[in-house]
Write a structure and sequence with these properties.
alpha/beta, 5-stranded parallel sheet, 4-stranded mixed sheet, binds adenosine-5'-diphosphate, binds guanosine-5'-monophosphate
Length: 187
């Protein structure tokens, strides 16, 4: 019999460091990461099939029609969705899976998979969040403003999550999330 595996949903405002912390968790072998599909354009060095599957709106909508997503949502004008097949395969093999998605997607997953674990990553402060988002240097001013406005809305919904973790340093934040994995898989 496979060991108990958990589906962990990680959310948090843009720029809080979710991607950085998730990479660290994957490099520690703590979980598999679900590669989402999106209709937004690649940013910086992003590659198709690595950070995201970059799809046209038409292709994304045909995957919706084929019921290919565990969930999907719109965020700042683009579609984002989690392909269903790899997630189910990993869980059936006893592997933990991380979905790094925004809050609306989390609400949908929670309704379908009530045993999923929600982890909300908070920035140490709003000032530090803006600094990280700007420091990444990958968005236009208009996109930064949209994301900061959405960040405020999202932080108010952190109470929907099982755990709230502050990303002060990447190592400490990843340590705390690893402890959550250990606790939840031993239940
Ligand atoms: P998100 O995926 O939440 O949008 P990123 O992982 O892209 O955020 O991180 C945004 C920026 O903040 C990046 O430039 C990243 O290197 C930096 N960053 C992430 N975590 C930390 C941290 N703990 N301390 C300082 N900078 C960080
Ligand atoms: P970004 O454009 O910065 O990569 O992502 C924007 C937001 O979309 C982030 O909050 C990220 O977590 C979320 N996101 C990424 N993939 C998915 C997905 O498959 N589904 C949903 N609902 N949100 C996603």
């Amino acid at each position: 019999m496979n060991k108990k595996a958990v589906l962990v949903v990680i959310s948090g405002p843009a720029g809080t460091g979710k991607g950085t912390v998730v990479k660290e968790l994957v490099s520690r072998g703590a979980a598999e990461i679900s590669i989402s599909a999106t209709t937004r354009a690649p940013r910086g060095q992003e590659q198709n099939g690595i950070e995201y599957h970059f799809l046209t709106k038409e292709k994304f909508e045909s995957m919706i029609a084929e019921d290919g997503f565990l969930e999907y949502a719109q965020y700042c004008g683009n579609y984002y969705g989690s392909p269903k097949a790899p997630v189910d395969k990993w869980l059936s093999e006893g592997k933990n899976v991380i979905l790094e998605i925004e809050v609306e997607g989390y609400k949908k997953i929670r309704a379908k998979r009530p045993d999923c674990i929600g982890v909300f990553i908070m920035p140490p402060s709003v000032e530090e969040l803006e600094k990280r988002l700007r420091g990444r240097n990958t968005e236009t001013e208009e996109q930064i403003q949209k994301r900061l406005a959405r960040a405020n809305e999202e932080m108010q919904l952190s109470e929907l999550y099982n755990y709230v973790v502050v990303n002060d340093t990447v190592q400490e934040c990843a340590d705390r999330i690893e402890d959550i994995f250990k606790k939840e898989t031993s239940n």
